[in-house]
Design a protein that fits this description.
Elements lengths: L24 H11 L4 E3 L2 H11 L12 H10 L14 E3 L10 E5 L5 E6 L2 E4 L2 H9 L7 H6 L5 E4 L2 E3 L15 H10 L5 E4 L7 H14 L2 E4 L13 H15 L5 E3 L11 H13 L4 E4 L21 H13 L2 E4 L4 E3 L4 E3 L1 H6 L4 E3 L2 H11 L10 H10 L20 H14 L9 H7 L8 H10 L1
Helix pairs in contact: 8-13, 9-10
Length: 463
Amino acid sequence: MIKPRKSGELIAPYGGRLVDLVVPQERKAPILEKAKRLDSVQISYRSLRDLALLAVGAFSPLDRFMREEDYRSVLQEMRLAEGTLFPIPLTLPVEDVKNFEAGADIVLRAPTNEIVAIMHLEEIYSWDLAEEAMAVFGTTDSRHPHVAEMHTWGKHYLSGPIDMINLPSHHDFPELTRTPAEVRDTLKTRGCSSVVAFQPRHPMHRAHEELTKQTMEEVNGSLLINPVVGKTSHTAIDHYTRVRCYKTLVENHYDRNRTMLNLLPLAVRMAGPRSGIWHGIINRNYGANYFIVGRDRIGPAGKDSHGKFFYETASVQKMFREHEEEIGVRMVPFTEMVYVSKKDTYAMPEIARNGRDDYITCSGSPVIEDSLFNGSKLPEWFTRPEVAHILQEANPPKSRQGFCVWLTGLPSSGKSTIADILAPMLMAKGKKVTVLDGEVVRTHLSKGLSFSKEDRITNIIRI
């Protein structure tokens, strides 16, 4: 039985203050004009994602990249300096700060150089990679992808109030990428007193569907399916395919008056238990008061240098349970479910055993990846046919996938002759073949290049 949460309230230790740093349209023109005269810094894609969610209140109560006092407190205590629970440091790393000084305004530019925000710079401080990695990730092992990425960051962090001028555009699923305020307003119109958030990282299968529907009924609430998209680094299936799967499920197998699909463009941290709490806070800001927390370690798929997983299986649920009152969200643990073939349903293993029913134990990721790799059909007891069709369409078997044959060698060594023989042989096997000849490349793509070592490398890079 799920422990009840008070009806309809957004519980927040900061009194429900939700941040909005986006400059109104009528104020943008003079701010943009001012921005042209300011020094600027180009931020990374990860920082751009952080900035965009920070600006719309997804990280409330944060209203800026962290001050040094907050940063140090988060590393040591998982709390902001004034005591609010916040487990992940949200910082803006830069390399060169010689043109910046506290008290000045600077422009934040996207990796593609567009102006996105103005920061009223208050602090510039240095940080230590080993200290932060150990505090947040519990390791300095570069096999952890986030730790490895930190080696590429600048040596200083910037902090100060922000005016967000241009939010990044989402051209893939714009109708599904909403701000926290937009999600909360939409959920409010559904008329349900409680909201259950579910954050799948794989295409949802029948066990996910069963659990989310049961939980909705138990709390008499709405369901917010709020998957992370973009820079996730923890799933082999691209987010475009995953979102198409979620869409077809919501449209065909859920009560659309009580179910909402939203996309969360979050740059994940894969920090195990700390990430679990962070995701709970984020989903609270999107309007949830229940959050389904699975057995996932919320860590890298691979193992560390000693062949061990970075985090224990139960660690995320354990830490979330310890802090759920402060988070303001009740945890719904997603435990193992098995398929009972005789009843064509999913159940907890102990229920199946008590009923002496035969059942199949499975994990979503291995079943999906094994079927796609072998080109076999996903079973209907495991996933809906519409979802299986999308997955197979996006991941054809090896026999239907393309490949490249690159023939390289000295002039007149027979490259074109071999290509002219190989192409019809492949076409006779049913392949569609395009031949890209080196002379054609040099005429049209690499015109003007010589045969020097530098120009040959440039030619190869262009190809």
